[in-house]
Write a structure and sequence with these properties.
Keywords: Cell membrane, Disulfide bond, Ion channel, Ion transport, Leucine-rich repeat, Membrane, Repeat, Signal, Transmembrane, Transmembrane helix, Transport. This is LRRCT domain-containing protein. InterPro entries: Cys-rich_flank_reg_C (IPR000483), Leu-rich_rpt (IPR001611), Leu-rich_rpt_typical-subtyp (IPR003591), LRR_dom_sf (IPR032675). Its main location: membrane. Belongs to the SLITRK family. By secondary structure, the chain is of the alpha/beta class. Helices cover 37% and strands 8% of the residues. The protein is built from 6 helices and 11 strands. The strands form 2 sheets. The chain has a 9-stranded mixed β-sheet, with helices on one face. Strand 7, helix 2 and strand 8 form a beta-alpha-beta unit. It is elongated. It starts with a helix and ends with a helix.
Length: 370
């Protein structure tokens, strides 16, 4: 019996490694099957990413079946022209979304409202011409936003209000000719701004935004070239290098129009979506009654200019002080020299009197001899 059982035990021991390897293969297959079962047929998925790029998609695939823990979704290089408002519902784990190189031309309000953890959003190279001011509501964690190579002519006031953590923004390659300062003031953490390849009109409508750009650069941010297309005498020049004194005529226009340059009805301009009252029955409003956008837009001149003024005033005051000290020193030296000269003169006067007396006695002796 012992002889018969020994080979059996030996065979069982030799079979254990094979069974463990088989179990490992089965577990890997089960994991792959689970991923494949949860991944849309149009995409390729792994534990962190779902890549649906370059599939000629005309609609967003079912994303509710994505594997748990998916953080990145690529939908670039497709034929998407519109998105349903619930396209990204229940996807709060997403951190990165790429919708670049599609044909998107109109996005519904609050499309990304449930992507509360999204930090990177790319809408580059689409056909967007208008953005709803509620589009980015809920994206409080967004750090990077790419809106370049679209057809945007304006950036509505309020669009960026909840993106206070944004550090990188691109609006290059659009149809922008002016921007409102109040639109960008909520971006307190912005460090990189791209505005190139736009038909900028460097007139009074861009003056306040120029001041804001100078403030951004002053605190260490980066802004690429903003080349003017109009007026003709500034064509090709970077507005950052245009002296602020060239915009002084804007103040005259404001005084003549009773408000902002280019505005109608005597009210300061706010943004293009704000209705302005007609000139008939216009009411003079106090500062507390003005819209918030007007209060935020009209600010003093840029920090750089203010600092330059302080530096120049300090230099002038320093020169004046040095001249005053030099004049005082010269006066003291001159006074001491004059006092010394007077003392020497007083010492010499008795000697001159004795010499005159001796001269008189000699004249008397000569006259007596004669």
């Amino acid at each position: 019996m012992q002889l018969s059982t020994a080979p059996t035990l030996g065979r069982r021991r030799r079979g254990n490694p094979d069974s463990q390897g088989l179990l490992g293969v089965l577990s890997v297959c089960a994991t792959l099957l689970q991923l494949c079962a949860g991944c849309p047929s149009e995409c390729v998925c792994n534990s962190l990413e779902a890549n649906c790029s370059g599939r000629s998609l005309v609609s967003v695939p079912a994303l509710t079946s994505l594997p748990e823990g998916t953080h990145t979704l690529f939908l670039a290089n497709n034929r998407l022209s519109s998105l349903p408002v619930s396209a990204f519902a229940n996807l709060s784990t997403f951190e990165s979304l790429d919708l670049s190189n599609n044909y998107l031309d109109n996005l519904p309000s609050r499309l990304f409202r449930e992507l509360s953890n999204l930090s990177d959003l790319s809408l580059r190279n689409n056909s967007l011409t208008v953005l709803d001011r509620e589009l980015f509501r809920g994206l409080t964690q967004l750090r990077r936003l790419d809106l370049s190579l679209n057809g945007l002519a304006t950036v509505p006031l309020g669009l960026l209000d909840e993106l206070q953590g944004l550090t990188w923004l691109s609006l290059a390659g659009n149809r922008l000719h002016a921007l409102e300062r109040a639109t960008f003031e909520p971006l307190v953490n912005l460090q990189h701004l791209e505005l190139g390849i736009n038909p900028w009109e460097c007139d009074c409508n861009l003056r306040d935004f120029k001041h804001w750009m100078e403030w951004l650069i002053y605190r260490g941010g980066y802004v690429d070239a903003v080349e003017c297309t109009l007026p003709k005498d500034l064509r090709g020049r970077d507005i950052r290098g245009v002296p602020v004194e060239m915009f002084n005529y804007c103040l005259q226009l404001e005084d003549e129009n009773g408000g902002g340059a280019g505005s109608k009805g005597g009210s300061p301009p706010c943004f293009r979506g704000t209705p302005t009252p007609s000139s008939e029955g216009a009411v003079v409003r106090t500062e507390t009654e003005l819209p918030d956008c007007v209060k935020q837009r009209y600010r003093p001149v840029s920090v750089r200019r203010a600092i330059g003024t302080v530096v120049i005033a300090g230099v002038v005051c320093g020169i004046v002080c040095i001249m005053m000290v030099a004049a005082a020193a010269y006066g003291c030296i001159y006074a001491s020299l004059m006092a010394k000269y007077q003392r020497e003169l007083k010492k010499r006067q008795p000697l001159m009197g004795d010499a005159e007396a001796e001269g008189d006695s000699e004249d008397k002796q000569i006259s007596s001899v004669a």
